[in-house]
Write a structure and sequence with these properties.
The structure is a homodimer of 349-residue chains. Chain A has 349 residues and is α/β, with parallel strands linked by helices. The first copy, chain A, folds into 2 domains: 204 residues, Medium-chain alcohol dehydrogenases, catalytic domain (Quinone Oxidoreductase, Chain A, domain 1), CATH 3.90.180; 137 residues, NAD(P)-binding Rossmann-like Domain (Rossmann fold), CATH 3.40.50. Chain A has 12 helices and 19 strands. In chain A, the strands form 4 sheets. In chain A, strands 3, 5, 6, 9, 10, 18 and 19 form a 7-stranded mixed beta sheet that branches. Chain A has a 6-stranded parallel beta sheet with strand order 13-12-11-14-15-17, sandwiched between helices. In chain A, α5 packs across α6. The longest helix of chain A has 14 residues. The termini of chain A are close together. Chains A and B meet through β16, α10 and β17 of A and β16, α10 and β17 of B. β16 of chain A pairs antiparallel with β16 of chain B.
Chain lengths: 349, 349
């Protein structure tokens, strides 16, 4: 089969790799129909993620079950499934207490003997605990829903996690830092949580501003640093927002988050931190909390799935380009150069 | 009147100072009956708090109202009152939303023109918002209750805040880091919250271990650093505790807190941080949250007062010495040298 391989900085290619096969009784083989390229894949692409050349890449996918190990429950060959960006057993203390991202048997795609998500097929360990059924052979999801269903793998639950951890309340003024795919999904999530006013700190990319407003952003601020803080406070007549949601993960974005955090509030964050250290004394006097981390996507998918299937939310609009698996190198280039927000890779027969 | 004055490192004395008088219509004058010496007063005492020589000191007191400004509501001369460690207006957005510690009109005792709490009398600004009545001229609180009532000024609500922010649940295993007065009150608070097993990380002071067990600690660990972590995990058969409550505020204690924090849990903290920086990457993968800060004592007092008055909780046992106001220099010395946990200063006529 074909799969995307990381060869070194700014070099990915589509290569022939061995077809996956059932190795354990809990495995499933899934034929991938659609795969996403994630912002965190760009860390690998840019050579900033300590990933060895030759590694497989990708962790967002949905598709159709083609084979099942003997011990997989609740799934049949032909079922349509979406898969979270980390596999998890569904049975350990963390899985059963709502934190499958800390599953003691789980792991990330593309590491060691585990397939990655940008390819034609994938072996899914712990399929019972990992996969979520989105249709069966007689009721394939409508093709128009595939982009939004694919966001369930990562970016939508990640945005929901940030908003949930920030404790966004109905009618609140919520500040979202970041206009990438996760920040965009956080807008969808904040609107879903009932935020009354959503202010987004983004960059000077009109496509991102337009999408943010489509998703429900009230205002979009393009300044950075001290100017961004001044711009937000001008919008709010000096009142700090009720909630701050951090979807970038840099020292600068966290500095902005803390400066704009309302006393007593919790900064929800989901951007993988790169060199972010917090001086606790900055938080202490104002009772600012910090909550978030790697999203337990598997926990959120069953809750979000009905809303996606009904069309109540349409986070799939974050996919601003659709390419084929063979065009993966172009997909990475477009995302790296910010010429598109997020790419959906289709995997034709 | 007499009041305690900070003269310089390791030098406090009891001096004659001007009697306070009503300056604003919202003021009250309180004759102090009992005052506490706080662990945070020791930062000043040791010259580590950037406090100028000549400053007044102390922020924990209870007593009797002797005079009221024209606009004070709900209080009468002769009322017994306890006062939180920060005064607050009771009317601003933060006061009315449960965070009086961030009151925009409030402040700390002993700064600028504000009296401090170790003296014979004190002018209380915003008395309506600040003071909590604990009895009237016909129903003075029983003298045996005064120590526990005095803990309402600071250490008990501070311990409750740490436990509340950590989200301690019924039946849980809760780790409390610190065996000072706040750590001890956190034990009371964790027991009150229904924790099933309370493990305390303390020092090698048998009086503190004894008090911790009196308050409900299940186990008391005297090791530090890596040895403390090993000792806790040996007690729990390797399982990380459900909740961690940090009551010290040093880089070392926070490092221990993060190493023992269970994925998905929130470290509650109330120790004023001294040089604590957190690498967010340590929190991200495990979804560890941080919550706490300067306790909104005024919010908690009305909730805790009935339990203190009924004897349901007896946090007053943290006062392991009682001295007179004139003996304040000795009180500081005893606390600095850890020869007592906490001193109650009585203020006779």
């Amino acid at each position: 089969m074909k799969a995307v391989v990381f060869n070194g900085p700014y070099d990915v290619s589509v290569e022939q790799v061995p077809d996956p096969r059932i190795e354990n009784a809990g495995d499933a083989i899934v034929k991938i129909v659609a795969a996403g390229v994630c912002g965190s894949d760009l860390w690998t692409y840019r050579g900033q993620a300590n990933v060895a050349a030759g590694a497989r890449i990708g962790h967002e996918f949905l598709g159709v079950v083609t084979e099942l190990g003997d011990q997989v429950c609740g799934l049949a060959v032909g079922d349509w499934v979406v898969c979270p960006f980390r596999f998890s057993c569904g049975e350990c203390d963390f899985c059963t207490s709502g934190l499958p991202s800390s599953c003691v048997n789980g792991g990330f795609w593309g590491r060691e003997a585990i397939d990655a998500g940008q390819g034609q097929y994938v072996r899914v360990p712990f399929a019972t605990g990992t996969l979520v059924k989105i249709g069966d052979s007689n009721s394939a999801p409508d093709v128009s829903l595939l982009p939004s269903l694919l966001t369930l793998a990562d970016v939508f639950p990640t945005g929901v996690h940030a908003v949930t951890q920030a404790g966004v309340t109905k009618g609140s003024t919520t500040l979202i830092i970041g206009d990438g795919a996760v920040g965009q999904c956080a807008i969808v999530a904040a609107r879903r949580a009932g935020a009354g006013r959503i202010i987004v700190l983004g960059g000077q990319h009109s496509d991102r501003e337009q999408l943010a407003k489509q998703f429900g952003a009230s205002e979009f601020v393009t300044e950075r640093g001290a100017e961004a803080i001044a711009a937000v406070l001008e919008l709010t007549a000096g009142r700090l927002p009720d909630h701050v949601v951090e979807c970038v993960g840099t020292a600068g974005s966290f500095d902005t988050a803390l400066q704009l955090a309302r006393p007593g509030s919790t900064v929800g964050y989901v951007g993988l931190p790169h060199g972010v250290t917090l001086d606790l004394a900055r938080l202490f006097g104002r009772n600012i909390g910090i909550a978030g981390g790697v999203a337990p996507a598997r926990k959120y998918i069953p809750e979000l799935l009905p809303e996606v299937l009904s069309g109540a939310v349409e986070p799939g609009a974050v996919f601003t380009s659709t390419l084929t698996l063979d065009e993966a190198p172009l997909a990475y280039q477009l995302m790296d150069e910010r010429r598109t927000i997020k790419v959906l890779l289709t995997c034709p027969e």
